[in-house]
Design brief:
By secondary structure, this protein is α+β, with helices and mostly antiparallel strands. About 30% of the residues lie in helices and about 30% in strands. The chain folds into 2 domains: about 120 residues, D-amino Acid Aminotransferase, Chain A, domain 1 (2-Layer Sandwich), CATH 3.30.470; about 160 residues, D-amino Acid Aminotransferase, subunit A, domain 2 (D-amino Acid Aminotransferase, Chain A, domain 2). The protein contains 7 helices and 15 strands. The strands form 2 sheets. Strands 7, 8, 9, 10, 11, 12, 13, 14 and 15 form a 9-stranded mixed beta sheet that branches. The longest helix is centred in the last third of the chain and has 22 residues. The two termini are about 25 Å apart.
């Protein structure tokens, strides 16, 4: 695969970064994953906006011109890697760069490290219709989850707990309420109303999360940013997740307890279908 690293297009096996890179040493950087359908970016501008916000919060200086060029680079990689048909993802990572190991920022500042790669994605449409299982775990992450940092150790440990338990995902609990999962936002449905944790520093403001809000409005489904207590989870009619590669994924069993009738509910399935259609339309519009 051809990738982009600091101004050059190189084979993935030849892409090298310094052992002093602060992304490697400290996890000092941010990243984004953008969905691609038939060569067309889905929600690219919101992803870039969130990347810029993360860079600003970490005080990593990437020029506006460099930020604006990222999609052109990604499009070139998609073409060169023959990924303009079907589904794919673009991975963008920016770290503070390589410098002597000190906790404070390098002074003078160094050039950020910019890395972009693309990969094939095969959506699991069968699982979207069938539903998946999850377990609940304590949310022990730091309190700046709104920054899409490359430092993902708590998320990795959470995903491994799901893997060890033989389930699809973990649902995190902080202060007695549902926050999100290790890599997606969580929604709970009761009496036709969707509930989700309010946008704050305790969750990542998911791009697909915002799409869910828009789709729910289009479908006439009420959605409220209100926390759901841990002891209310199992009484919900439906539970579903949203994410760039997760799409809309119904959760039908949590901690071994069946949710609703044990299959993705009507609200979830309406959103599954609508998101699929919107993605397909984005591919048609951009790729022609």
């Amino acid at each position: 695969m051809l990738v982009y690293l600091n101004g050059d297009y190189v084979e993935e096996s030849q892409a090298k970064v310094s052992v002093n890179d602060r992304g490697f040493i400290f996890g000092d950087g941010v990243y984004e994953v953008i969905r691609v359908v038939n060569g067309g970016f889905f929600q690219a501008i919101p992803h870039l906006t969130r990347l810029k916000e993360g860079l600003s919060l970490l005080r990593i200086d990437l020029s506006e011109q460099e930020c604006e060029s990222l999609l052109d680079i990604a499009h070139y990689l998609l073409k060169e890697n023959d990924l303009t048909e079907g589904h794919a993802t673009v991975y963008i990572q920016v770290t503070r760069g390589a410098a002597k190991r000190t906790h404070q920022f390098p002074n003078p500042a160094v050039e950020p490290t910019v890395f972009i790669s693309v990969n094939r994605l095969v959506p699991n449409h069968e699982l979207h219709q069938k539903g998946a299982s999850a377990i609940t775990i304590p949310d022990v992450r730091w309190t700046r989850c709104n920054i899409k940092s490359v430092n993902l150790l708590p998320n990795i440990l959470a995903k491994q707990r799901a893997e060890d338990a033989g389930v699809f995902s973990t649902i995190m609990i902080r202060d007695g309420v549902v926050t999100e999962t290790q890599n997606s936002n969580t929604f709970l449905v009761n009496d036709g109303v969707i509930y989700t944790f309010p946008k704050s520093n305790y969750i990542l403001a998911g791009i697909t999360r915002d799409v869910v809000f828009k789709m729910a409005k289009d479908l006439g489904i009420e959605i409220r940013e209100e926390p759901v207590a841990e002891d209310k989870i199992y009484d919900m009619d439906e539970v579903f997740l949203s994410g760039t590669t997760t799409d809309i994924q119904g959760i039908t069993r949590i901690d071994g307890i069946t949710i609703g009738d044990g299959s993705p509910g009507p609200v979830t399935l309406k959103l599954v279908d609508k998101l699929k259609n919107e993605m397909e339309q984005s591919g048609k519009v951009i790729s022609g």
